[in-house]
Structure formats: C-alpha cells, structure tokens
Design a protein that fits this description.
- The structure is a single chain.
- The protein is 77% helix and 3% strand.
- With 185 residues, it is an all-alpha fold.
- The chain has a two-stranded antiparallel ribbon with strand order 1-2.
- The longest helix has 36 residues, at 39-74.
- It is elongated.
Length: 185
C-alpha cells in the first residue's frame, strides 16, 4: 500500500482554502464593501479584495486538483474493485468540474466589474441605481454565483468524507465482497 499523504494534504488544504475563501468573501467582503466612505468606492473596495484573493484561490484550486488526481491514481485499485467508490469518485469529479466552471465564469464577471473602478454600487455584488448596465448585470450574476462556489466545494467536502469512510477496513471488505458474484453483500 502506498502512502498518499502528500496528495491528501494537497487535496484537503486546497479545497479548504477554495471553500473557505469564497465563503468568507460572500459573507464578509462583498457586503462590507457597501460600507465604503462613498458609493463610488464600493466597487473598488470589493475589486481590490477579490483581486488579492484570486492568486491564492488559483493556487488553492491547483493544489486541490493535483491532490485529487493523486488520490484517484493512488486508489485506482479501490475505484475498480470496491463497490461504491467509482460512483463517489465520479460524483466528486462532476462537482469539481462544476465548481471550476462557476469559479472561472465568476472570474470573467469579476474582471468585467473591476474594469470600472469608480462605479456606484450598494455592495460588491449589488448594483445601485446609477451603476452602468453592463456592470449591474455582471454584479447581479455574481450575487448568485458567490454562493454557488461554496455550495459546490462544500458538496465536494461531503463526498470526500464519504470516500474517506469507504477506506475503513470493514467498508473495504464489504465493498469488495459486493463485487464478487454469489456472495451476499
């Protein structure tokens, strides 16, 4: 049996930062930007925060993808031979693809918003009446997407917990036995 400590660490730390950072920005940064000294500073405050977070988030996502890939390769025998592992792995991969897609699209929208630094806004994701239409549209989309990334990455955390439980010896034996025809499982 090989040791997957590095892969598991990259998977877990990367996912923790991706989940926690986007949740913190949705809960704290975007609303707090609305407290800027003037409505035209709101967008700038939120944009500065997100621009500072982006490289950290990219590194976290890269670490998670690298770690997840290492875990999948390190557990390929279990994926093929233990009932339930392939399904959970496929679910995790689908959730990760969705989270990557939403994250990338959010960044596109965020760049669209950050091109307009001195635009009035209510918060980082809520336009004001005087917000230009193209910025307001991007902000309204970001208002929803800011919750989608933590929801998807949170779901990945749950699937990872399931995958971890499937590694318990009694679950491995039960899962392997379920793949053998004629055995109760």
């Amino acid at each position: 049996m090989s040791d997957n400590t590095l892969s598991r660490s990259l998977n877990d730390l990367g996912l923790a930062a991706w989940f926690g950072g986007t949740l913190a920005n949705a809960v704290a940064l975007n609303p707090a930007a609305g407290e800027a000294e003037s409505p035209t500073r709101v967008g700038s405050v939120a944009n500065d925060g997100w621009d500072r977070w982006t490289p950290v988030n990219a590194a976290a996502i890269g670490a998670h993808v690298l770690g997840s890939t290492g875990l999948l390769l390190g557990n390929k025998g279990r994926v093929a031979g233990q009932s339930g592992v392939a399904g959970a792995s496929m679910l995790k991969t689908g959730l990760m693809a969705a989270a990557l897609g939403v994250t990338a699209y959010s960044r596109v929208l965020g760049k669209r918003v950050s091109e307009h630094r001195a635009v009035p806004a209510e918060s980082g994701t809520e336009p004001a009446a005087a917000t230009p239409p193209e910025v307001a549209q991007a902000q309204r989309q970001l208002h929803l997407l800011q919750w989608a990334v933590p929801a998807l990455t949170g779901a990945i955390i749950l699937v990872d917990a399931k995958l971890g439980e499937q590694q318990r010896s009694d679950n491995v034996l039960e899962g392997v036995a379920a793949r053998i025809p004629g055995l109760p499982g």
